[in-house]
Amino acid sequence: MDNAAANVVSLEFLLDSHHVWRGQSPHIDDASTQPTGHAALDAQLPLGGWPDSALTEILSVRPGLGELTLLWPTLSRLTVAGERVVLIAPPYLPYPHAWLQAGVDLGRLSLMQVKAQDILWTAEQCLRSGSCGAVLCWPGRADDRALRRLQVAAETGQTLAFAFRHQREAVNASPAALRLVLEGIPQQLRVLKCRGGNPPATALAHRVWH
User: Fold this and answer.
1) What is the pLDDT of residue 210?
2) Do residues 185 and 55 make contact, with C-beta atoms less than 8 angstroms apart?
3) What is the full DSSP assignment across 81-149?
4) Cα(186)–Cα(104) distance, rounded to whole angstroms?
5) Which top CATH class is 31-208?
C-alpha cells in the first residue's frame, strides 16, 4: 500500500472513530425530543416534548408561578437515571421536601450561587461539559448573542438547557428552540415559539401541569 492510500485509510479510521472534529457541531436530530411529563403539553408541541440538546426559555412576570413544577417530571426522570441537574442562581433557595416529593434525587442535584455577571458563563460551561442531563439558569437580562451561545453549548454538550427570564423579553427575538410564557391571571401556559411547527393557538390551563 502506498503512502497516499495509507493516509486515506488512516483519515477514514479517525473520522469513523470520532477522533477528529469536522468543523461542525455534533449532529443533533431536529426531531429528537424528551417528554415533558405533561401529556397535554406534549400534545401541543409539534415534536411532542422538550427539544433535545437545545435551549428552552420560560418567561413569566415573576418567579413562583409554577415554572419548577413544570420541569419536575423531567428532572425526576433524569436524576433517577443518574443524570446530574444543575441550578444556577435560582431566585429562591429550593425547598428540599418539595423536590423529594416530586421524585427528584437530591444527590444528583447541584446548586450554584454565582454573581449576576457570571450566570451565563457558568451555564455555558456546564452545558458544554456534557456531564449534565439538564442545566437551569436565571440570567435576568441576556442579549441574542448570549442566548445563542447557550443554544450552541446545549447542542455541543447534548444537554437540556432552561433559561428563566422576565415576560417582557417575549417581544425580543431569541435563538431558543422553544419559548414558553407562564401567565399569572388567569394562570396559564402559552407556547410562544417552538421547533418543528407553528405555536398552538390555545393556551394550557394551570391545572394541566401543576
Assistant:
1) 61
2) no
3) TT--EEEES-SS---HHHHHHTT--GGGEEEE---GGGHHHHHHHHHHHT--SEEEE--SS--HHHHHH
4) 29
5) alpha beta
Pairing type for strands 85-88 and 55-60 reads unpaired
On the CB side of 120, how many CA atoms lie within 13 Å of its CA?
16
- Residue 152 buriedness (CB in 10 A; 0-12 / 13-18 / 19+): middle
Strands 160-166 and 55-60: parallel
Asked if residues 116 and 140 have their Cβ atoms less than 8 Å apart, the reply is yes
Cell of residue 97, nine digits: 421536601
Q: Please say whether the dihedral angle defined by the alpha carbons of residues 126, 67, 37 and 148, taken in this order, is positive or negative.
A: negative
User: Any residues with CB less than 8 A from the CB of 121 and at least 6 apart, and which?
Assistant: none
Place of cell 455534533: 26
Which stretches of the chain score pLDDT less than 70?
A: 1-31, 206-210
Residue ranges of the domains in the chain?
31-208
Residue 108, φ and ψ in degrees, nearest 5: -105, 10
